[in-house]
Amino acid sequence: MFYTLISLIGLVISMGAFVILMNYVDFESHYDDFHTDSDQIYRAESYFTLNGTVADSWATSSFGYAGAMKAEFSEVKAITRINFKDNERIVRYQDKIYRERMVVFADSNFFSFFSFPLLKGDPQKVLREPNTIAISASAAKKYFGDADPIGKVLDITTRKVVFHCAVSGVFEDFPPQSHLKLDMIISYASTSQFERDFWYMHSAYTYVKTNSEADARTIEKKFPALAEKFKTEDAMRDKSWEIHMVPLSDIHLNPLKPMEFEVKGSKQNVRFIFVFALIILIVGWVNFINIMTSKSIERAGEIGLRKLVGSKMKHMMIQFFIESFIINFLAVSVFLILMVIALPFLTDLYYSPMFNQFWQRPMVWGLLVLIFLLSTLITGAVPILVLRKIKIAVVLKNRMSFRVGMGKGLRHGLIIFQFTAAIVLVVSTVTIRRQMDYMQGKDLGADVTQTLVFKTPAKTDDYEGKLEMITEKMKTIGGVKSVSRSSAVPGEMVDFFIANQRDNDPEKVSVLTEMFRVDYDFIDAYQLKIVKGRNFSKSFGADKDNSLILTQSAMKLFGFKNEEEAVGGFINLEGQGNKKYEVIGVLKDYHHLSLKENFRPVVFLMFSPWNMLDFQYVSVKIQGANAKAIAGMLEREYKSVFPDSSFDSFFLDEFFNRQYKEDVTYGVIIMIFTWLTIFIVCLGILGIASLMLLRRTKEIAIRKISGAKPWQILKLINMEFIRWVGLAIVIGTPLSWWIMHNWLENFPYRTEIEWWIFVLAGLLTVLVTGITVSIQTVKNALENPVKSLRNE
To answer: Domain limits at 126?
Structure first.
C-alpha cells in the first residue's frame, strides 16, 4: 500500500502538471485560429531599410497599400484595414461619459473578412455608411443597459474632432484568443478620402487574405515595384520600404513591435514550458517505473511458483497491465477531482482566460486520454520486461538480486535523470527570478517613482489653455513637487514616427525616429540626464517652435559623430516641408519601455506640428507619504476645470511594471512546478530507499551485530544516493548553463548566471536527498538486528 500510494501521488502531480502546462501551451499557441481561412490571413507589416539593412519595423503599414494590393496582386483574395487613429477616445451617451481605449476605424468588410460573430446587424452592411459604429455586447450593456442600441447615437471625441455615430451593429465580445481586443468599430467611411488612401503615413493595420494556393513570400517580393508605382514622391524619397506578410497565427507570439498595443506572449517561454511539461511527466513515470521495478523482488516468489505450476506468461502480463491501469485510472480521477475544487481559485488568481473554459477544451480531454493510455502502457510494460527474465530455480532459492530485469545501469540511469531534471529546474527557476528582479530593479535612466499620471480630457477648442491653467494650479498643492505635460510617458509606447534628415547630410538619408512632445518641466521632472547642451527654457523664445532635443540613440541614427557635433546642428522634418530645427541638447538614453526592448531613437520637441502630438498625459511628482490624499486633491482641481471628463489616473511605477506581467506569471509557473517536480523526486527517493533497505535488511543486521553504529548505516545508504546526485550535478550543471544562457540571449539587458546558482542547486539536491533517505533509513538503523534476522 505504501509504494502504491507513493506511485499514485507522483502520477497525480505529474499528469496534472502536464495537462495544466500543456493547456497553457495550447492556449498561447492557437491565437486567432478560430477565424475561417485563418491559415490564409496575414498582416502586412512595414520594414524600413537603410543602406540595405532593416533599420526599423512596426506592425502597421501605409493606408494606400490596401487598394493597390487588391488591384495589382492576383494572389490577394480580400483586404481589410484597421486604424486606431488615437490611443484613446472620449465616448458620450447622454449623461454617460467614458474614456475608451479600444476604439478603431475599420473597412466595411471587417466582419465578413474576420469571423467575429455579430449579434445585431448584417456583416456586409454594418460598417458601410459614414458615421456608423458597431459596438461589443459589453459596451452595449455599459451605455444602453437592456435597451436596444441600434440607431442610438454615440458622440466620440478625438483630437478636436467629434464623430456622431449611430450604432449599426452589436458584436460578441472578442474571444480571449484574439490578438485584437476591440470595443467599438467606426466605419472607415467616416474619415476623409485623403486619410483612407494616404501613402505617407504608416498607421493602418492591414490584413490580407490570400488565395489558397498563394505564396506570401511571392507577394513580399512583388511589393517594391508596387510602391514605386503608387507611392507619392514624399513617401518614397530617399527611403526603401518592404512589407513582411506575417501569418495571423504568429502575431501573438512574435516580439513586440512599435504600434502594437496588445499584451504579447513569448514563443520562447511557450517552448520552454512545453519542454518543462514533458520533463515533469517523465519524472513522474520514472518514479513509478523505478518503484514498480524494484518492487518486483517482493513478488519474485509468487511469480516463480506460478510459473512452476504452469501459469502462462500472458496471464501475468494481463495482471500487471490491470494493476497499472487501475493506478493510472485512479491518478486521472484524483486529478479531475482536485481540478474541480481548484479551478475557481486558478481562474481568479492566475490566468483567467486560459481556465475560463477549461472543461470545454477538447485538448484537455484528448490529452488526459492520451497520457492515461501512454502511462498505462509504459508503466505496465516495464515490470513485464522484468518478469520475462525471472528464472524459476533462482527464485525458489530466494537468490533473486536487485539486478533482475532491466539491469542496474538503466535503473540507476533513470534515477540520475530525475536528479538532473531537478538541478536544471532549480537553476532555471533561480535564473528566471533573477532576470525578473534585474529588469524591475535596474536604473531606467528616468525616475518613475512617486509619480501620479492622469490622462488629458477631450480636445476642445480651449483645451490647451485650460490644461496649462490646471497644471499651474496643481503646482500650488502641498506635497506636489512638479507637474509636467507630455504626449507619452515611460511605459507607454511612443506611437508617432516620422522620417527626418540631418540638415547637412550630403547623402540626404531619411531616418525614422519617435517624436515625443514635452513641456518645459518634463525632462527635469523625470531626471533625464542632459549629456550635452541644455534643456528647453522659457528664456529662449525659439525653443517653443524651432528647437529639438535628441536622445543618444537618435543622435547616432542621424549620423552625428558625438554630442558636441550634434548640439547646434539642424534636423529637417519632412512633415513640415523639410523646415530646419536646431538641436539644443542631447539626452542620455533611458528605458522608455521595459528592459526587454533596446533603447529607441527619440526626438523631443515642444511644439505640435501634428495633431498626433497633443499632450495626452500630465505627470505629477509627489513628495511625502500621503499620495492618496494628494491624488484626491488633484482630482478635485481637475473636475473644477473639466467637469464632464473622467479623471483617469495611475501611479507610474505600477503602470511601468505591468510590462512584466506575463514574465512574472511565467516565473511563478516555473517556480511552482519546479517544487512539485522536486517533491515527486523525493517520493521516488523515499520509495527506492525503502525497497533498498528491504533488500539489505540482512546485510544491515549483520553489520550492526559486527559493531556498526546507526550513523554508519545512514552513511552507507546515503552514499549510494549521493553518488547518483554527484553524477547528476556533473551532467546538470553544463546543461542548465547552456539552457539558461540561450534563454537570456533573448534579452538585450540581462543578469549574469553566477557560479553560486549551480552550487545552490547541487547543495539543495544533496540536502533534500539526504533528508529523504535518512527519514526512511533511521528506523532500520535503530531496529534490533536479531529481530531483522529472525524475519529474514
So the answer is: 86-190
